[in-house]
Specification:
Blueprint lengths: L1 E5 L4 H14 L5 E5 L11 E4 L7 H18 L4 E5 L1 H15 L3 E4 L5 H4 L3 H11 L4 E4 L2 H9 L7 E3 L6 H4 L11 E6 L8 H11 L7 E4 L5 H10 L6 E5 L4 H9 L1 E6 L8 H8 L3 E5 L15 E3 L6 H11 L2 H12 L7 H18 L1
Parallel strand pairs: 1-2, 1-4, 2-3, 4-5, 5-6, 6-7, 8-9, 8-11, 9-10, 11-12, 12-13
Helix pairs in contact: 1-14, 2-3, 8-12
Keywords: Glycosyltransferase, Transferase
Organism: Bacteroides stercoris ATCC 43183
Protein name: Glycosyltransferase, group 1 family protein
């Protein structure tokens, strides 16, 4: 089976989360990746197709559809996969409709992919992707949302996100005392809501010893630094900026006891899986598919209020005042590596492709 994959994504996310399990599927002969730029050459079964760029984005996307139609004929494409709604999902869906080739849609940001942008955008997104042959989601909340919007449950497949294999293989036997009590690892924007964490730290700083590391950058970073000064918690926080190096990521997680996500909207962030794989105790907001893997009080903690810091502060105080609880929950969090794998996702793809070929 020859696959046309329409996606942007970073090279790391594309390789780890999409290509690696696809290439292990027994059905896949070759994957042709349609994107604006080439990527990592991880396998002889992957070819990057990059149409000539033009300055106007709308024209570029139209050219990509035209190029995709041509590539379908040239490379005898059997199935098209699009990742995220806009624009690559639309591009892949258009190519599939024009060439009468089955289209599979991958959602990786949860149900917010559909409704972010308002009601009109939501209705259009739902109408377009309801016609996909298969749609993959990262968890049960997104599945339930799509079913509530009229999607056929038989066409929806749960396909969990995956971290880099280095996190799955992380050797916790080498672990020593952890330098940081709390880690936040994400893009720093309003949706990530990291200011809530800073306010929670301000609440508990006089009750227990706390040291926070914030990794990431974005438009809210300067505001966070100002907030830290205003709350007089600068001495408790290390802002380390964007971290891309794999070993640096591993070192930060291994040096942290608790991973916090305060997002107002999420899919199934890879950072959560990375943190749990390294034994960080997850404390996460109850949004999107992020809570699919958290059993509250067993392998992590879930809080509901993303506007007031009191509930989050309570979770943090409970953990920071009880080392035995942290150690026990950390061991349970680490077990995430037993339930997700490249091979497991490859098996899911085998089932998807079997259903596609059975209908042809």
């Amino acid at each position: 089976m020859n696959v046309l994959l329409v996606a942007k994504l970073s090279n790391q996310t594309l390789t780890e989360n999409i290509l690696s399990p696809l290439l292990k599927s027994s059905y896949v002969d070759h994957v042709y990746v349609l994107r604006d730029f080439p990527g990592d050459m991880i396998d002889g079964k992957v070819t990057y197709l990059s149409p000539e760029k033009v300055s106007e984005s709308r024209i570029r996307h139209i050219r990509k559809v035209v190029a995709g139609v041509r590539y379908c004929s040239k490379y005898k494409i059997d199935v098209i996969i699009g990742v995220l709604n806009t624009p690559h999902g639309y591009i892949g869906k258009a190519i599939g409709a024009m060439m009468n080739i089955p289209y599979i849609h991958i959602t990786i940001a949860g149900h917010r992919e559909f409704w972010l942008g308002g009601k009109i955008r939501e209705r259009v997104n739902l109408a377009v992707f309801r016609k996909a042959r298969i749609i993959t989601v990262t968890g049960q909340q997104t599945l339930a949302y799509l079913v509530s919007k009229g999607f056929d449950a038989d066409r929806i497949v749960v396909l969990p996100n995956l971290p880099n294999q280095a996190f799955m293989d992380s050797n916790m036997q080498e672990e020593g005392e952890r330098k940081y009590d709390i880690v936040s690892f994400s893009r720093i924007d309003k949706n990530k809501n990291i200011g809530l964490l800073l306010r929670a730290v301000s609440r508990i700083k006089n009750e227990c010893s706390v040291k926070l590391i914030v990794a990431g950058d974005g438009e809210e970073l300067d505001n966070l630094k100002r907030m830290a000064k205003e709350l007089a918690i600068g001495e408790y926080i290390d802002f380390v900026g964007y971290i891309s190096d794999l070993e640096d990521k591993l070192r930060i997680y291994r040096n942290s006891r608790i991973f916090v996500s305060c997002s107002k909207g999420e899919g199934f962030p890879v950072s959560l899986l990375e943190a749990m794989s390294c034994g960080c105790v997850p404390v996460v907001s109850n949004v999107g598919d992020i809570v699919d893997v958290i059993r509250h009080g067993t392998n992590g903690f879930v809080f509901n209020d993303v506007d007031s810091e009191m509930e989050l502060a309570g979770c943090l105080m409970r953990l920071l005042s009880d080392k035995e609880l942290v150690d026990k929950t950390s061991r349970e969090a680490r077990k995430i590596v037993e339930s997700i794998s490249v091979e497991g996702n490859a098996g899911i793809w085998d089932n998807v492709f079997a259903r596609i070929t059975a209908r042809q």
